[in-house]
């Protein structure tokens, strides 16, 4: 039931950056919505079916252009160019998560000042319409929690480690070969990319001014194939989760690996797909699943933002963001998986359990795994406790003579 | 980032029907959006925090009311009341899938004539914002296919049969006890409810005028616990699927049980949850998951429709629906699972395989299961063929002296 008001045809669109996303936007905007790009900007000498300049200001200063698509990525010079476009009274559409995560407040304020819109659906979840859905289609809800798998590279690596028993380094190599990881994978592997998206999700879900620096972040580089195998034994898979919760007026925004029950719909989100869970009232729990990156999926999000502006479906000006207190990682409560090595001898399990009990930490399950040399591996699952209490318990347990090494600690969703 | 224009407060809402959904709408509209119901209608003598009449026309004819929520369900008298409200210039919001599936064209025409809106997000997928997302958030896509699990009762029954090895009748009994099946479960079990939703999804996804009578329909009453067990052996679960495809200008809309690969995100949709897959270009594949029924989830959809009207976010009038040719079930192409019983003796498998081959039907896998008495169960998986060819092959195979009985045939997604 799509109808486009005729005013749409009078809207001229300029694109800065004609790489994977920019090119897909230009191509699909023509193919699906019948809209031609007025002017592009790219530094390469490639032929396009529309005029292309090497100077971005030829787009930004063109009085005929009313929507500027920023598709160059990164903060510099994207921020300067987006601010200039907004100041010039152009609506801006971008899928640049780093730019939005680091400078959302400043950019929204500039858009508001000029009476134009800044939309960035493609910055989280690629083709999944999660941000606009949170804002428009769930407006009758109080959103309590938004969490999910928002980085395709780490999900591909963890999926390979799970399905084929690969070690992290091997799976990373495979991801690079397949084009799912970049030559320098630091931003994905160490959770930076996911933390940008977590900050943006939190901002949109809660109308909150979230500083990206306040997002707690852990990557997947410490996850060993044993952790994945042991997690599987007890019915879990390991996923890199981006989490944003609002409880008691405090925001909890973080990115870290977590155990997810195999029966949870998030567990079947494999390879480079993304999925985002939303908990709200009165709706309950929703999940949105789809391709998290790539030219075509991201172009779907960008094109929809363009059409939303062209159709003036969104009458609301960019809303004010509010300040919330941030919950420190020590204050969060979670269940935990702990893998440790102990000498394989009588009474060790009892000693460890006692040590946890003395710290008032409640153990849900203990399993002894294989012994290598004279070292046995023990998997401990803890009931929900505050991270602060966990850390204090772990520091006394680490000192126990019967504990050889605490190999890994992973939160359980 | 929700802001409500001030005009919202001047909009008065009336509700006809104060059962589970109507009451949840009234309660949550106040709690979440701060909006009070102006007038309600219900035939019971219960106290409500707003005036309630026994006569629906007290709501429909109230000049102060601009949005009427229909929450009585069924076609009579809902259709008459909705038409009267639309004619009176009231916007109408409903979650009545039967009403919308059977009379969408007529009702949309009446809304258009009066210059008002008819919204029905709650009619499909309960709290999942699938219809508005298809219409608004994916407007930059060509939608090719929409399919999923849209009936909670049958999904609960199939989940129980899968998880606990129950027979259909036992699982149905359990569903009734739990309140997940009605006393007369015919509409759910035989696929009527899902076929209403399939017709609505197809209409919205493709802007198509879909007659509900054209939706092919099979229920789950023939699914045996053996089918579920054998499907599990080969990596599948059985789900009741609602499917709407547009290919080559022809619509294919149907409801039937199907085998879904365990690794598919739909496989983990259990109990009374719903999930809808969308395939489009350029976005690729998306899935939307959530609670498929219930007062609170459905009220989320109804309230969002109310706010969409109140906020005038949707400037578009109700769009025109188009006519498409409907693809008959004989013309669809699918993979198939076939369970049959044969005498347990030499050469039987070869004979059956040859019979399929002579009909140019390609067998993907054959497995012989346990023998009871002198009858062996054989599971056959076929590669993709037209349903017409399958039927013709089955009718010759049924006549083979070595075939005791064809127990079941289920399509594979």
CATH superfamily of the largest domain in chain A: Dihydrodipicolinate Reductase, domain 2
| Total count of strands of chain A | 17
* CATH domain class of the largest domain in chain A: Alpha Beta
Q: What does the largest sheet of chain A look like?
A: 11 strands, mixed
pLDDT < 50 stretches of chain A:
1-8, 313-318
What is the CATH topology classification name of the largest domain in chain A? Dihydrodipicolinate Reductase, domain 2
Q: So what's the oligomer here? A: homodimer
The radius of gyration over CA of chain A amounts to: 24 Å
- Provide the structure class of chain A: alpha/beta
User: What is the molecular shape of chain A?
Assistant: elongated
Separation, N- and C-terminal Cα atoms of chain A: 39 Å
Account of the protein in words:
- The structure is a homodimer of 413-residue chains.
- With 413 residues, chain A is α/β, with parallel strands linked by helices.
- Chain A folds into 3 domains: 6-123, NAD(P)-binding Rossmann-like Domain (Rossmann fold, 3-Layer(aba) Sandwich); 130-291, 2-Layer Sandwich (Dihydrodipicolinate Reductase, domain 2); 333-412, 2-Layer Sandwich (Alpha-Beta Plaits), CATH 3.30.70.
- Chain A contains 13 helices and 17 strands.
- Chain A has helices spanning 20-33, 57-60, 78-87, 97-114, 130-137, 152-164, 168-178, 186-189, 192-206, 225-233, 295-310, 348-358, 387-399; strands at residues 13-16, 39-41, 52-53, 67-70, 91-94, 118-119, 142-149, 216-217, 236-247, 250-261, 273-281, 284-291, 325-326, 333-343, 363-372, 375-386, 405-412.
- In chain A, strands 7, 8, 9, 10, 11, 12, 13, 14, 15, 16 and 17 form an 11-stranded mixed beta sheet that branches. Chain A has a 6-stranded parallel beta sheet with strand order 3-2-1-4-5-6, sandwiched between helices.
- The longest helix of chain A has 18 residues, at 97-114.
- Strand 12 of chain A pairs antiparallel with strand 12 of chain B.
